[in-house]
């Protein structure tokens, strides 16, 4: 559970309802896969990274607004899944003969990044609070967008 939600006194059931945001991720994965198959994986990645960066703004209101948090979580999940699927599509297209190895390596680094993000977020939250976590999330997302912008093929 996101620590700022404790101030909202949500029940276990209400907290569990955040799992429904996964539905947005499922829709994003299917849509991103379709766009990637149509040759739009690069564009999908960029748009999803922009959405990911923006999603941290409503998430920053978690301590005061459940509705903003829900909107932010849905946007974040949609964006993350779209980046995930389009990235794997680009990896597979780049070297079809090595697709399994490359996707395996991608997943290893994806998991390491998730673990590092959780460790950093925990430290940020304990020292500076929820806003610091959201600023860091937005900063990392913006950096990913800038890297994408600078490295995309024309």
From TrEMBL:
User: Matching InterPro entries, A to Z?
Assistant: MFS (IPR011701), MFS_trans_sf (IPR036259)
What is the top-level taxon of the source organism? Answer: Bacteria
The answer to whether the entry has keyword Acetylation is no
Q: Which GO terms describe its molecular function?
A: transmembrane transporter activity
S-adenosyl-L-methionine among keywords: no
> Where do the TM regions start and end?
12-32, 44-61, 67-91, 103-122, 128-148
Its signal peptide is none
Which UniProt keywords are listed?
A: Membrane, Transmembrane, Transmembrane helix
Q: What is this protein called?
A: Major facilitator transporter
The species is: Klebsiella pneumoniae subsp. ozaenae
